[in-house]
């Protein structure tokens, strides 16, 4: 077996080591480094895309919530027009019954009912004003007004005129103007047909 002389082979080893080092540097510079840069770029692109997808999901969720809210509002509005306000005939009957019931509950005597109606500009509504002269005691008249305002029949007290009654101070005359609204059925149905 021959002796391996490191000193004698040192220049050859240095050349081989330098060639390997240069080869590694060349491999890193030409192949590995561009691939690492590409991976880093792909990672940053992936993060940016994930952020964009998250933002789009949040916007989509907000739009769905808004759409559901608008659908509920539209349904509530349609219910308000068709059920609460309903038609002229139904409103007249319900308003007369409600006012008669409240007057009876508080022992207030309506002397006559007078209805005045007018279209509300820019809407499908008709304003129905009820002029109602009443005779009764102060507390009963006050409770009558409070009950009218609390009614589920969508009644609005517009004006009140109080006068002393014929019998002195015990009975009073009260002239009340109460407004309510009803939907112009043809206009409302036409509008919902167009919007649907």
Number of strands: 5
* Largest sheet data: 5 strands, antiparallel
Number of helices: 4
Tell me the overall shape.
rod-shaped
CATH architecture of the largest domain: 2-Layer Sandwich
| CA-based gyration radius | 43 Å
End-to-end separation: 101 Å
CATH C-level class of the largest domain: Alpha Beta
Low-confidence stretches: none
What is the fold named in CATH at topology level of the largest domain?
Alpha-Beta Plaits
Number of domains: 2
Write down the overall mean pLDDT.
81
CATH superfamily of the largest domain: Ribosomal protein S6/Translation elongation factor EF1B
Q: What is the oligomer described by this structure?
A: single chain
**Percent helix range:** 55-70%
- Note the beta-strand portion: 15-25%
Indicate the structural class: alpha+beta
Order of helices and strands: HHEEEHEEH
Give your account of this protein's structure.
The longest helix has 80 residues, at 6-85. The protein contains 4 helices and 5 strands, in the order ααβββαββα. The chain folds into 2 domains: 1-84; 86-190, Ribosomal protein S6/Translation elongation factor EF1B (Alpha-Beta Plaits). It has 196 residues and is α+β, with helices and mostly antiparallel strands. Strands 1, 2, 3, 4 and 5 form a 5-stranded antiparallel β-sheet that branches. β2 and β3 form a beta hairpin.
Topology overview:
Elements: H1 6-85, H2 88-105, E1 109-110, E2 114-119, E3 125-136, H3 138-150, E4 156-165, E5 168-183, H4 185-195
Antiparallel strand pairs: 1-3, 2-3, 3-5, 4-5
């Amino acid at each position: 077996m021959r002796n391996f002389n490191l000193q004698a082979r040192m220049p050859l080893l240095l050349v081989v080591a330098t060639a390997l080092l240069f080869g590694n540097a060349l491999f890193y510079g030409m192949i590995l480094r561009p691939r690492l840069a590409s991976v880093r770029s792909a990672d940053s692109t992936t993060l940016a895309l994930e952020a964009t997808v998250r933002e789009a999901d949040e916007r989509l969720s907000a739009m769905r919530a808004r759409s559901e809210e608008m659908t509920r509002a539209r349904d509530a509005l349609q219910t308000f027009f068709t059920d609460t306000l309903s038609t002229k005939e139904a409103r007249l009957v319900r308003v007369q019954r409600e006012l008669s019931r409240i007057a009876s509950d508080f022992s207030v005597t309506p002397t006559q009912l007078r209805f005045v109606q007018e279209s509300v500009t820019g809407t499908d509504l008709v304003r129905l004003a009820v002029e109602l002269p009443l005779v009764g005691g102060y507390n009963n008249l006050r409770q009558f007004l409070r009950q009218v305002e609390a009614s589920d029949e969508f009644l609005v007290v517009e004006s009140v005129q109080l006068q002393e009654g014929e019998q002195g101070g015990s009975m009073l005359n009260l002239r009340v103007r109460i407004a309510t609204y009803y939907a112009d059925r043809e206009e409302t149905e036409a509008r919902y047909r167009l919007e649907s």
